[in-house]
C-alpha cells in the first residue's frame, strides 16, 4: 500500500483487519484507494497504477479528477460531495479515461466516508475495478450453456425439464442419440415438417431430399470441426415439400448407446429466401427495363423472367387493341418453341375467355383447373397446339387504364396460389409503365418514319417545282424584254408601269427559286442531266435545223452554255475576305437599291478582320441581313452594323431598332417560308420598303449556309413596347408615330439583332480543306 510518508499515527485510516481486507481485494485484481477530503489520492494498492496506466509516483497526491475529462471529473466530485454531506457511500460509478499510452479505460468506483475515533471526517476510502473486459461475460455465458448441457446428459430429471423448455422454442428442434436415432422433437418440428414424435422416436428422419445425402455428411463434419458453424441447406417435409432451412447444432463427445449426442435447431427460411429471390428479380427487371426500347424485345424479356420466377411452362403479355377489340401477344416465353412462335400470330377476342374477364373487371384471376372455369376459352390453345391446365392472369394498368394482361401458364410443381398472384401483380406493376412507354415509343417511331417519308417527298416536290419555275420565269423575262422593244413606238407611260410590275414579280419568283436552290444544294438535279443527255444526242439534228432557219453559227454552243448556266450545279470557291471591308462594299450597293428609304445606318467595322468563305455565300448572308433590318425599321429609325474580333472568332452583328418579333414567332424564324407578319397584313411591295413582306426563305438559307460553311447564326429580339396589343400597327415613320416624343424613344422601344459568328478553329479547317 502506497501512502504519504508524513501521515501520523493518530490520523491513520487502517488497522489490522482493514489491511487483511485490502490484501484480499488486491488478490482479486481490484484496487483499494484512499483520498483526502479534496479527492487527492493519499494511498492506494499496487493494482491502481496498472489500472490507470501511470507510474505510482505520478498518481500519489494527485486529484482523481485529473485522470478524466471535465465532464467525468464534475460527475466524480459531485458524487464525493454527496458522500461527504450525507455520510452515505456509493458504488458502481463508472467513468472513462485514457492511460498514459492513450488506451481507453473504463473504471468502476465505490467509496465511503472515513472518520477517526472522534467522528471527525478524514477523507474517503473505496475500491476501484477495471471493467474494460466486460465482454468476457459472453464467454462465461457460453460456458454456462455447455455446463447446462452436460448436466442435461447426466441427469434424467434435468433432461425432462429441458425438454419442457424446448417445447416453447418457436423453431423446429430435434435431438439425436449418438447412434443417430431421434430421441426428441419439439412441437414446432411437427408443425413445420409434419412428423409426430411417436412416428420418429428411435428412428432416423427421412427428410433428406434426393441427392442431398452426401451434402448432409459434409455438413455433419463441418459441425464437428466448428460448433458455431451455420449450415444452410434443404430438407423435405412429410408431404414431400422441399424447404430452405438454416441448421445450427451441438454435438456431444459421448458415444454410448442412446445417450443424447446431437441437438439441432432448424429454422425454416423458405419464405425469406423466396422473398429475397423475388426482390432480386424485381430489382434486376427494373434495372434491365430501360435497356429495352423495342417493344417486342422488352415483352420477351418480361415473359422470360415471369416463366423462370414462377416456374411455369409458359408466360405471355397480351396487349389490348380497343379499336379491334382484340388481345395480341407480342411477347411470349414457352418451353415449346413452336407454341412461342405461334402465339404471337394468334390474336384473340378481348370480349371472351378469362383474359376478357380480367380486362372487363380489372380483377386478377387464379385458376388452378381451367376445366372448371366457365369462362375459359380454348381458342388460343387450338391456335398454338398446346393445353392450358392452370393460369394466373393479372391486369397491366397504364396511365389511362388497363392496357393488357400478364399471364403465367401451367405451374410445373404444385399449383398456383395467392403468393403467385401477388408476385405476378408486383411484376405487372413494375413493368406496366415501361410497356406503355415502349408502346408509345414504337408508335412515335412509326409516325417519325411516316413524317420523314413525307418530308423526303416534300423535298422532291420543292426541288422539282423550283426548277420547273426557273425556265418559264426566264422565258417570261426574255419575252418582256422583247415586248418592251416592240412597244417602243408607243408612249412609255401607257405600258411602262405594267411591264415594270411584271418584271419585279418575275424577279421575285426567280429569287425564290435561287433561295430554294441554295437550301437544297448538294443534290443532283435530274432536269439538268436529262436535258444535257438530250442535247448531246440531238446535237447534229439541232445544228441542221438551226442552219436551215438562221444559217450556220455558234447557236448550238450558245444553247449548251445557257443550259449549263441555268440548270447546272454551282460550286462556290473559297477566298479570304476582310469582313469590315466586305460589309462596307455591300452596304454601298444596298444604299443604291434602297434610296426610297430614310433609315440611319451606323457602321462599326474593323477592317483587319479576315474570314475564309465563298464570296457569293457571304454576299447573300450580308445582303439578306441588311435588307431584313431595313425592311423591319421605320423611316427615321436606326440600323447598326458591327464587325468585331472575339476571343475565339470574328463576329458580324446586324441590329435594327424596329418593330421586333413576337415571342411565339422567334422559335420558328429559321424554319423557312415563314413570315412574321399576319397573312392579311402581308404584301409584296418594292424591295427594302418598310414591311415589304419577305418570302421567309432568306433566314433558312443563311442557317443552311451556316451548317455547310461552319458559322453560327443566332437571333435575339424584343417586340416594340408600343405594339403589344393585337390591333396595334407601326405607321412606318418615326415622325408620324403618336407614341414617340423623340427618335430615341423608338430606338429604346424594341428591335432585333442577328449575330453571325465565324469560329477561328472552323475557319482553319476550311482553309486546310480547300487549299
Outline:
The protein is of the alpha+beta class.
Walk me through this protein's architecture.
The protein is an alpha+beta fold and 771 residues long. It has five domains: 133 residues, PAS domain (Beta-Lactamase, 2-Layer Sandwich); 131 residues, Beta-Lactamase; 174 residues, GAF domain (Beta-Lactamase, 2-Layer Sandwich), CATH 3.30.450.40; 43 residues; 195 residues, Histidine kinase-like ATPase, C-terminal domain (Heat Shock Protein 90). 45% of the residues lie in helices and 22% in strands. It has 24 helices and 24 strands. The strands form five sheets. The protein has a six-stranded antiparallel beta sheet with strand order 1-3-2-6-5-4, with helices on both faces. A six-stranded antiparallel beta sheet has the order 14-13-12-17-16-15, with helices on both faces. The N terminus is likely disordered.
Amino acid at each position: 500500500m502506497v501512502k504519504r510518508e508524513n501521515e501520523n499515527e493518530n490520523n491513520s485510516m487502517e488497522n489490522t483487519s482493514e489491511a487483511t481486507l485490502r490484501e484480499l481485494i488486491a488478490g482479486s485484481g481490484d484496487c483499494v484507494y484512499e483520498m483526502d477530503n479534496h479527492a487527492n489520492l493519499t494511498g492506494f494498492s499496487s493494482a491502481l497504477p496498472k489500472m490507470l496506466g501511470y507510474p505510482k509516483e505520478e498518481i500519489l497526491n494527485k486529484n482523481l479528477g485529473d485522470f478524466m475529462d471535465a465532464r467525468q471529473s464534475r460527475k466524480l466530485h459531485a458524487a464525493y460531495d454527496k458522500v461527504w454531506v450525507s455520510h452515505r457511500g456509493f458504488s458502481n460509478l463508472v467513468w472513462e479515461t485514457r492511460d498514459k499510452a492513450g488506451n481507453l479505460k473504463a473504471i468502476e468506483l465505490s467509496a465511503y466516508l472515513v472518520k477517526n475515533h472522534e467522528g471527525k471526517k478524514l477523507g474517503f476510502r473505496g475500491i476501484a475495478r477495471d471493467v474494460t473486459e466486460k465482454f468476457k461475460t459472453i464467454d462465461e455465458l457460453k460456458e454456462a450453456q455447455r455446463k447446462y448441457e452436460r448436466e442435461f446428459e447426466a441427469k434424467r430429471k434435468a433432461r425432462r425439464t429441458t425438454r419442457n423448455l424446448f417445447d416453447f422454442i418457436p423453431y423446429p428442434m430435434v435431438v439425436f442419440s449418438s447412434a443417430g436415432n431421434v430421441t426428441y422433437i419439439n412441437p414446432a418440428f411437427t408443425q413445420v415438417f409434419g412428423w409426430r414424435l411417436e412416428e420418429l422416436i428411435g428412428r432416423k428422419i427421412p427428410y433428406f431430399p434426393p441427392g442431398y445425402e452426401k451434402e448432409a455428411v459434409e455438413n455433419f463434419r463441418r459441425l464437428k470441426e466448428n460448433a458455431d458453424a451455420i449450415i444452410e441447406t434443404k430438407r423435405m417435409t412429410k408431404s414431400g415439400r422441399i424447404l430452405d432451412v438454416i441448421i445450427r447444432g451441438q454435438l456431444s463427445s459421448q458415444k454410448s448407446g442412446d445417450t443424447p449426442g446431437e441437438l439441432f435447431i432448424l429454422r425454416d427460411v423458405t419464405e425469406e429466401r423466396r422473398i429475397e429471390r423475388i426482390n432480386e428479380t424485381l430489382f434486376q427487371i427494373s434495372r434491365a427495363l430501360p435497356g429495352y426500347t423495342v417493344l417486342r424485345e422488352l415483352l420477351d424479356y418480361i415473359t422470360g423472367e415471369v416463366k423462370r420466377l414462377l416456374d411455369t411452362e409458359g408466360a405471355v403479355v397480351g396487349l389490348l387493341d380497343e379499336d379491334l377489340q382484340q388481345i395480341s401477344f407480342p411477347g411470349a416465353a414457352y418451353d415449346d418453341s413452336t407454341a412461342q412462335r405461334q402465339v404471337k400470330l394468334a390474336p384473340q377476342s378481348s370480349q371472351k375467355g378469362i383474359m376478357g374477364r380480367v380486362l372487363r373487371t380489372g380483377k386478377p384471376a387464379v385458376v388452378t383447373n381451367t376445366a372448371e372455369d366457365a369462362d375459359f376459352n380454348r381458342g388460343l390453345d387450338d391456335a398454338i397446339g398446346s393445353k392450358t391446365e392452370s393460369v394466373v392472369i393479372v391486369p397491366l394498368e397504364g396511365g389511362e387504364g388497363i392496357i393488357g394482361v400478364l399471364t403465367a401458364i401451367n405451374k410445373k410443381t404444385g399449383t398456383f396460389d395467392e403468393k403467385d398472384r401477388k408476385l405476378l401483380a408486383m411484376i405487372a406493376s413494375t413493368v406496366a409503365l415501361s410497356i406503355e412507354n415502349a408502346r408509345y415509343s414504337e408508335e412515335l417511331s412509326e409516325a417519325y418514319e411516316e413524317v420523314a417519308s413525307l418530308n423526303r417527298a416534300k423535298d422532291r416536290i420543292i426541288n422539282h417545282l423550283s426548277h420547273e419555275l426557273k425556265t418559264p420565269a426566264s422565258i417570261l423575262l426574255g419575252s418582256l424584254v422583247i415586248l418592251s422593244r416592240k412597244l417602243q413606238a408607243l408612249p412609255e407611260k401607257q405600258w411602262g408601269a405594267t411591264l415594270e410590275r411584271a418584271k419585279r414579280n418575275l424577279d421575285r419568283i426567280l429569287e425564290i427559286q435561287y433561295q430554294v436552290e441554295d437550301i437544297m444544294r448538294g443534290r443532283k438535279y435530274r432536269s439538268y442531266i436529262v436535258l444535257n443527255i438530250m442535247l448531246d444526242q440531238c446535237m447534229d439534228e439541232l445544228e441542221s435545223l438551226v442552219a436551215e432557219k438562221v444559217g450556220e453559227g455558234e447557236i448550238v454552243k450558245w444553247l449548251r452554255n445557257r443550259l449549263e448556266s441555268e440548270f447546272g450545279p454551282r460550286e462556290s470557291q473559297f477566298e479570304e475576305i476582310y469582313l469590315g471591308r466586305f460589309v462596307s462594299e455591300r452596304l454601298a450597293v444596298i444604299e443604291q437599291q434602297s434610296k426610297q428609304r430614310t433609315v440611319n445606318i451606323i457602321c462599326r467595322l474593323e477592317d483587319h478582320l479576315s474570314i475564309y468563305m465563298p464570296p457569293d455565300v457571304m454576299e447573300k448572308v450580308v445582303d439578306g441581313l441588311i435588307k431584313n433590318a431595313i425592311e423591319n425599321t421605320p423611316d427615321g429609325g436606326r440600323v447598326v452594323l458591327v464587325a468585331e474580333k472575339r476571343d475565339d472568332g470574328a463576329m458580324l452583328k446586324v441590329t435594327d431598332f424596329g418593330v421586333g418579333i413576337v415571342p411565339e414567332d422567334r422559335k420558328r424564324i429559321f424554319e423557312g417560308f415563314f413570315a412574321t407578319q399576319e397573312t392579311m397584313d402581308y404584301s409584296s411591295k418594292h424591295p427594302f420598303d418598310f414591311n415589304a413582306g419577305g418570302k421567309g426563305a432568306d433566314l433558312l438559307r443563311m442557317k443552311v449556309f451556316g451548317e455547310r460553311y461552319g458559322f453560327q447564326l443566332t437571333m435575339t429580339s424584343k417586340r416594340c413596347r408600343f405594339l403589344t396589343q393585337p390591333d396595334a400597327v407601326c405607321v412606318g415613320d418615326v415622325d408620324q408615330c403618336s407614341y414617340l416624343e423623340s427618335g430615341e424613344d423608338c430606338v429604346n422601344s424594341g428591335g432585333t439583332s442577328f449575330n453571325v459568328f465565324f469560329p477561328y478553329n472552323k475557319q482553319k479547317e476550311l482553309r486546310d480543306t480547300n487549299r
